[in-house]
Automatic annotation (TrEMBL):
Domain Aminotransferase class I/classII large: 35-412
Protein name: Putative 8-amino-7-oxononanoate synthase-like protein
GO biological process: biotin biosynthetic process
Any GO molecular function: transferase activity
Stored SUPFAM superfamilies: PLP-dependent transferases (SSF53383)
Organism for this UniProt entry: Hapsidospora chrysogenum (strain ATCC 11550 / CBS 779.69 / DSM 880 / IAM 14645 / JCM 23072 / IMI 49137) (Acremonium chrysogenum)
One Pfam entry name: Aminotran_1_2
InterPro entries: Aminotrans_II_pyridoxalP_BS, Aminotransferase_I/II_large, AON_synthase_class-II, PyrdxlP-dep_Trfase, PyrdxlP-dep_Trfase_major, PyrdxlP-dep_Trfase_small
Length: 433
């Protein structure tokens, strides 16, 4: 008799083959250490910093015996997995980001699914930016709320899909009177820095809009600061602190796996909300808590940020962003008319973040070309991003040098010239960048 699993493998194999023919098959690769990193989310290059590593080892050596010699936590925080170190880290992070309280989660993904899965009450609504992270979508699916998207970063545009329009429709719709009376809660979910486009949310305007449309205080803004944590604002406190909106944003999610070079996340919120999450957030309750080595790494990274030693790195990162912008703009200007389908760099001003998308219908070709020249970049294609917006996602890091950026842009320039000559379009010779 044919084994069940082999029949199922056959089903999977044909699904994978279909995906393969569409050029959308996902694969695991091991990053090669000798390539120059223009891909990871380690924006500050802290994960390999010698000083932080030494401070981390010292912390492990000096930790109390009941904490320091345990690789794992031993259980859920609600059973045996809680520790003074976990609670101390929550206080450190909350103080650093100017929040009343915080609750750790094992990842940003779990923080979002935990928060959105239980925060809305029956009948509540979650209004979210259309480019919000997959984990928020999954959280909404787990919740008892209705989800409605608004157009990316469109707060007050005339479009019927602007945030203002969506909120206005809600307050005039079927349950409008209950919404206006503050009996239905509206959660508004945005990211401070969008992970694929690298643009910032117009957060001050979003806050104004929500307060105007929901004056009874039933608009609750949740900001996912995953890609802002550690580098945006003074000492990397994030966008909410940078704009002084701590008291007008209901909850924030900070993740430790990106600029902070560690792993895990925290939801910043009121003490009562924290207590509610402890009771109802399934991804907090039904999982083994972080062990001491992980907590110690995050605590060490926070101390580094708070000490101000991060400032020279931030300054270097800002210059890299400006320099890259100059070089990419010059590539596009020289290959006029703009090389349609080849590479489209759309930033008019200096990019707002170290994430710079290079839109091209040939994302895989560009990424492979750059990888062969020793630059690690990755193609990001549908369904990870909306169809028609395939790109190579360039990520700059404080650990990159000006020369590396120069080399990368020179290779992009050569690729553009090659592609254009293949397509028969006239192309400028790559010139000295
Ligand atoms: C905006 C955003 N939120 C949340 C997450 C999830 O964070 P983590 O990697 O810690 O699970 C990510 C990571 O890709 C992200 O980009």
């Amino acid at each position: 008799m044919e084994r069940k699993s082999s029949r199922l493998d056959g089903v999977y194999a044909s699904i994978l083959a279909r995906r393969g023919t569409q050029g959308r098959l996902r694969r695991l690769t091991i990053p090669t250490p000798e390539t120059v990193d223009f891909s990871s989310n380690s924006y500050l290059s802290l994960s390999r910093d010698q000083d932080i590593w030494s401070a981390y080892l010292d912390r492990l050596q000096q930790s109390p015996a009941n904490q320091g010699f345990s690789l794992g936590s031993g259980g859920s925080r609600l059973l045996d997995g809680n520790s003074a170190a976990a609670e101390a880290l929550e206080c450190t992070a909350a103080a650093f980001h100017g929040a009343p309280a915080g609750l750790l989660f094992n990842s940003g993904f779990e923080a979002n699914t935990g928060l959105f899965g239980c925060a809305p009450q029956p009948g509540d609504v979650v209004v979210y930016d259309e480019l919000i992270h997959a984990s928020v979508h999954d959280g909404i699916r787990l919740s008892r709320a209705r989800g409605i998207s608004f157009a990316h970063n469109c707060v007050r545009g005339k479009s019927r899909t602007s945030l203002d329009h969506v909120l206005s429709e809600l307050t005039q719709g079927q349950d409008g009177h209950r919404l206006r009376a503050g009996e239905i809660n509206v959660f508004v979910a945005v990211e401070s820095v969008y992970s694929m486009d690298g643009d910032l949310a117009p957060l001050a305007d979003i806050v104004e809009c929500v307060e105007e449309r929901l004056p009874n205080g039933n608009g609750y803004i949740v900001v996912d600061e995953a890609h802002a944590t550690g580098w945006l604002g003074e000492r990397g406190r994030g966008l909410v602190c940078h704009l002084g909106l701590e008291d007008r944003v209901w909850a924030r999610v900070h993740t430790f796996g990106k600029a902070m070079g560690c792993a895990g996340a925290i939801v910043l919120c009121s003490p009562t909300t924290r207590q509610y999450l402890i009771n109802y957030a399934r991804s907090f309750i039904y999982t083994t808590a972080m062990g001491y080595p992980t907590l110690a790494g995050i605590q060490t990274a926070y101390e580094y940020l708070e000490s101000g030693r991060v400032e020279p790195r931030l300054a270097h990162l800002r210059s890299l962003i400006k320099h890259t912008h100059r070089l990419l703009t010059s590539i596009c200007t020289r290959h006029q008319p703009p090389p349609r389908d080849v590479v489209l760099y759309t930033k008019e001003g200096v990019p707002e973040s170290p994430i710079i998308p290079l839109f091209t219908a040939h994302a895989r070709s560009l990424a492979e070309y750059l990888q062969r020249r020793g630059f690690m970049v990755r193609p990001i294609v549908a369904p990870t991003v909306p169809a028609g917006t395939d790109r190579v996602r360039l990520c700059l890091h404080a650990g990159n040098t000006m020369e590396e950026v120069q080399g990368l842009c020179k290779a992009i320039d050569e690729w553009v010239a090659e592609k254009l000559s293949e397509s028969g379009e006239p192309s400028e010779k790559p010139s000295k960048l």
